[in-house]
Amino acid sequence: MKKMLVSAALALLMALPAVSASAEEVEKEVQVSGGSLQVTQTRLQFSDVTLKVRDQQKSFASSLTHVIDNRGNGAGYGYSVSATDFETEVIINGQSQKFRIPASSIRFTTSLKDTITGVPVNFTTNGVLANNEVLSDTPRTMFKVDPGFGQGAYDFQVDYVLNLPQKIQSADGKEIGVMAGTYKAKFTYTATSGI
To answer: Could you tell me if 41 and 64 are in contact, meaning their C-beta atoms sit under 8 angstroms apart?
Structure first.
């Protein structure tokens, strides 16, 4: 009986199809393409000043700068600002005259407000934030992120303080007390890739 069972089991095994095991390694790829460096900011609006000639007067403004670094190369980036002098045109004795407040009357300070995505940047060791920087007609750094840092999305706040001078200059270079009027200046912002 035992022989018959073993023979039947052996016959059953032989009737089953042969199974072979094999493994195949196949390499697959995924391509990750870099995007762009995008920098946008909110509108800059200085507070109005009512003249009080005996006081040191100031005008304040803040803007939020949004940076999105989708490049995927870790090149770092910088953002700078320059400005013309503030000018106004006033009619005096029937004649139009221009007066200006120098751009250097403004100081600005930048802070990292939020890390939206990406690794937080330590600006003590891996970048620069403006601290009480004097505005000029030559570009001044607002913030700079060293290579290898700043990949992601970040919000920077820039606070400006205009110290209204006691005296200003006319277009022909004469000093005069501050003239009432709407003063305008052109601000130029520049984003740079890499440092």
So the answer is: yes
Q: Is residue 79 very low, low, confident or very high in pLDDT (cuts 50, 70, 90)? A: very high
> Which residues are 187's β-sheet partners?
83
Number of H helices, E strands in the chain: 1, 13
Average pLDDT rounded to a whole number, residues 57-76:
95
CA distance 145 to 51: 40
The model carries a pTM of 0.81
Structure tokens at 70: 């989708």
**How many CB atoms within 10 Å of residue 169?**
16
**180 closest CA partner among 99, 102, 104, 107:** 99
Within 48-128, residue ranges assigned H as helices are: none
Closest listed residue to residue 190, CA positions, set 65, 69, 62, 36:
65
Task: Kindly state the tokens that stand for 65.
Answer: 């700068």
pLDDT at 179: 87
b/e per residue, 9-26, with b = 16+ CB within 10 A? Answer: eeeeeeeeeeeeeeeeee
Written as six digits, the tokens of 6 are 């073993």
